[in-house]
Amino acid sequence: MKWITRERPKIDRLACPWLIKRFIDAKAEIIYVPAKEVIAQAKALQAIPFDVPDVEFSHYEDRCTFDYFIEKYNLKDAALHTMALAVRGADTDNHSISSQSAGLWAISAGLAFNFRDDYELLERGMLIYDALYSWAKYLQNEKHTQNPTESLLQRVLHQHLAQEEETHRKMPDWGLPLKKIIQDQIDRNLVPNLTKISEELDLHPAYLSRQFPKYFDSLTFGEYIRKLRIEKAIHLLYHTSHSLSEIAYLVGFSDQSHFSRMFKSQTGVKPSNFRKGIIKGKEIAKG
């Protein structure tokens, strides 16, 4: 069976040949010609035209040619119907249909830019749609950060970025200097003291204590310090080989047991288990 369409494929004219070869006719021949020659060449070559106006295999209603192939051949595979949403969104510039549509368009446009030969482009595009099918069939519930340690680090980062944005939007004049003083003291393994910091900022300690939660994540001064210590501990666990006792000291805890309790209260896991997760994650990454 021969199929013919317009040259310089990007979305439908790569997705449909993939669908034909993988689910309809593995030996199908795909032909690309200039748009104005499709109908004439279809007759001459006894090929079925697709993805051009006024032929059976084309766009219909709000759907694209890939949708029509699925309907025409009564393909029931749920993964294909998931793919169809991504293809339709990419092909019609309606990226709200599927969260994969914008990425599919970007990859397809870049692929067409890099490969000027349509048949080489199709060969590469087959790999893209094989990968998209595997995702739709087996991996839709998979996340990039599978390792619990990576997930925790991602959560800490996202929280930190959100808090930074909120902080810069609302903080009074003394807020950023206070934040820098606290972070500097944490970095130097000092114990931040509210009274001394208040004097440095020329503020009354009682006032600073009352106002602090308004601008620091609804945390008291002590709670905020503990949060910074745990974030520093996570960094040290991930990037150093220090013992847990050494890390406890470096982040300002008087003993390891206190450090372990505070770490678990903040993260839900003990630092020893957290480190095991890091080691396991690195082993998995090495393959």
Topology (SSEs and partners):
Layout: E1 2-6, H1 12-24, E2 29-33, H2 38-45, E3 48-49, H3 65-72, H4 78-91, H5 101-114, H6 118-139, H7 148-170, H8 175-187, H9 194-201, H10 205-215, H11 221-239, H12 244-250, H13 256-267, H14 271-286
Parallel strand pairs: 1-2, 1-3
Quaternary form: single chain
CATH topology (fold) name of the largest domain? Arc Repressor Mutant, subunit A
Number of strands: 3
The CATH superfamily label of the largest domain reads: Homeodomain-like
Distance between the termini: 43 Å
- Class from helix and strand fractions: mainly alpha
Count of domain modules? 2
Name the average pLDDT: 88
Radius of gyration: 29 Å
Q: Helix count?
A: 14
Shape assignment: elongated
**Helical proportion?**
55-70%
Order of H and E elements? EHEHEHHHHHHHHHHHH
The level 1 CATH classification of the largest domain is Mainly Alpha
Domain HTH araC/xylS-type: 176-277
Keywords: DNA-binding, Transcription, Transcription regulation
Pfam families: ChrB_C, HTH_18
Organism: Pontibacter virosus
